[in-house]
Amino acid sequence: MAQSEQVMGNDQKWRAGRKYFLRSDRNSGIRMMAPALLVILLVTLFPILYSVVMSFSHVAITDNGFQIHLQGFKNYNILIHSGIYWHSVWFTIYYALVTVFVELVLGMLIALAIHNVERLKSVSLVVMLIPWSLITVISAEMWSYIYNGVYGVLNYVLISLHILSSPVTWTGHSVTAVISMMVADIWKTTPFVVIILLGGLQMISKEYYEAAYMDGANRWQVFWKITFPLLRGSIALAAMFRVLQAFGVFDLPYVLTGGGPGRATQSLAMLADQALFTNLHFGLGSSVAVSTVVMVLVICLLFLSAFRSLVEEGA
């Protein structure tokens, strides 16, 4: 009896000591992370909060700097009644939806092809990473040469194949400018989707496929019953990241089309840049940026909720 009580006492002392050391380690970790967390808060959280404050204010430029005067929802009221703003909203939305959908489809096809070819997998990955590794400004400049109406490669190829009878200024018309911009974006960012989906494919056990083929399933049935359900998480992750990037697109249209012709390819990011740094309407530009962030958050939450329900159904 005394021995068992001694064992229990030692166990309690051990547990108490373990809790003490764990608490001590946690407190030490928090103290070590505190400077980095403080820097992150100052670099990210403060500008965000400051932008929100500016969106509800009128910023007057003076000889000594600038003055902020709160004016409520006046800037947002201007946006709601602005046709230019709504054009940028709808352009950004359908640009994001079309490019992300095409990239997911192409990314899935390419990822499946690379996954099924073991011998050339490493070479294929290196080739796929070339477009993604290019700086967007350089990529946009390259595509501007391809689309050029005078010496562009695209016109030369299409005229040589007798598809066109005369050169076309691809970025000079609203419809062709939007399509040209989408093609450039899809070419650059599809490898990002491929890498994520290929990682998801490699995590799927081969035993599932072996069992399915033994039961007489064909490739199409295997894809819809095994591959696609198990890849929903990777697809959701790739789509979410690409939606975030597509809503913030700025450098590609800025270099490739300049937001034109007219305002045909003017994204929300370009509109905010024009209001903030060209027209010096800091309050109005901040309201454009804040409204964009709100739309992105809502879309991502809806997207994640929808995919979560799909994953639960497939589980």
Automatic annotation (TrEMBL):
Record's GO cellular component terms: plasma membrane
Membrane topology: Multi-pass membrane protein
Segments traversing the membrane: 32-53, 93-114, 126-146, 177-201, 222-244, 280-304
InterPro entries named among the record's database cross-references: MetI-like, MetI-like_sf
Assigned keywords, A-Z: Cell membrane, Membrane, Transmembrane, Transmembrane helix, Transport
CDD domains according to UniProt: TM_PBP2 (cd06261)
Main location: membrane
GO biological process annotation, one example: transmembrane transport
Gene3D superfamilies tied to this protein: MetI-like
Domain ABC transmembrane type-1, residue spans: 89-305
Subcellular location as annotated: Cell membrane
Domain of life the protein comes from: Bacteria
Family from the record: Belongs to the binding-protein-dependent transport system permease family.
UniProt-listed PANTHER family: BLR7065 PROTEIN, SPERMIDINE_PUTRESCINE TRANSPORT SYSTEM PERMEASE PROTEIN
The protein's name: Carbohydrate ABC transporter membrane protein 1, CUT1 family
Lineage: Bacteria, Bacillati, Bacillota, Bacilli, Bacillales
